[in-house]
Design brief:
- It is a single chain.
- By secondary structure, the protein is an alpha+beta fold.
- It has three domains: 49 residues, no CATH class; 118 residues, 2-methylcitrate dehydratase PrpD (60s Ribosomal Protein L30, Chain: A, 2-Layer Sandwich); 42 residues, no CATH class.
- Helix content is 33%, strand content 19%.
- The strands form three sheets. A four-stranded mixed β-sheet has the order 6-5-7-8.
- A hairpin with a 4-residue loop joins β7 and β8.
- α4 packs across α6 and α8 packs antiparallel against α9.
- The chain is globular.
- The two termini are 27 Å apart.
- The mean pLDDT is 86.
């Protein structure tokens, strides 16, 4: 999950829609964040229940983060990489488009996340831009991505985590494990993460730089805002 959502349906409505025997009382909420407990419908052993869960980050963020750390700690340049091997519980093959050409394809390409992290020793919202998605260095590394055997230890800790091993042409090996990526519920969110995402994505809404910075300042002090129109007035294009 990347954004926020709201919950206005009552217990009776949810019970009827999902055919549940029992639903706890739910208070309407209008700004549920990725790090907050939220009700989800779970089907297990023919029993459908409502449980509280904490949404995490994107399922491939840990792959990019682990690849970036391995490349950075091993001081490995993109042109020296022979292979990038990913290992995580239940991950047996690369899914999605191998060589994405747009934002949707990139978001569903674990190979892209791995190659981008290894190439740039970093992964941020810049990697969601058209220029990065078309980066030839990243696409050359995509062809060197492979899936290794699942980890045998600490499997329960991985959740959305991954172990990435980078091997170089001259035989050097660097490995990094990330159990929970930055921005996941386990670690919480920082304003730096939010600011980076906002500044990277809001230009796609055709907002000018001054609008982005002014609206971001309002978001930082949103508890002091008298009415949401103060923010909305800054988002007109």
């Amino acid at each position: 999950m990347c954004g926020r959502f709201y919950l206005t349906a009552g217990a009776a409505e949810i019970k009827k829609k999902f055919v549940l025997d029992q639903v706890p009382e739910l208070v309407p909420r209008y700004n549920i964040a990725p790090t907050q407990l939220s009700p989800v419908v779970v089907a297990a052993e023919k029993l459908r229940t409502v449980r509280l869960a904490v949404p995490g980050g994107h399922p491939y963020h840990a792959l990019a983060e682990a690849a970036a750390i391995a490349a950075m700690e091993g001081n490995i340049a993109a042109q020296d990489i022979e292979s990038i091997t990913v290992s995580r519980p239940g991950f047996t093959a690369l899914t999605g488009p191998l060589h994405p050409t747009d934002l949707i394809g990139m978001a569903h390409s674990p190979a892209y996340f791995l190659a981008a992290g290894a190439a740039d020793r970093d992964f941020s919202w810049v990697h969601a831009t058209a220029a990065k998605i078309a980066d030839p260095v990243i696409h050359r590394l995509i062809d060197k991505v492979q899936v290794g055997p699942p980890p045998t230890g600490n499997a329960e800790r991985y959740r959305q985590g991954a172990t990435v091993t980078i091997r170089t042409m001259d035989g050097r090996i660097a490995t990094s494990t990330v159990f929970a990526p930055k921005g996941a519920g386990a670690g919480g969110l920082s304003w730096a993460d939010i600011d980076g995402k906002y500044r990277a994505l809001m230009p796609h809404a055709r907002l000018r730089d001054r609008q982005i910075e002014a609206s971001l300042a309002v978001i930082h002090d949103f508890r002091l805002v008298a009415h949401v129109s103060e923010l909305m007035s800054l988002l007109h294009t």
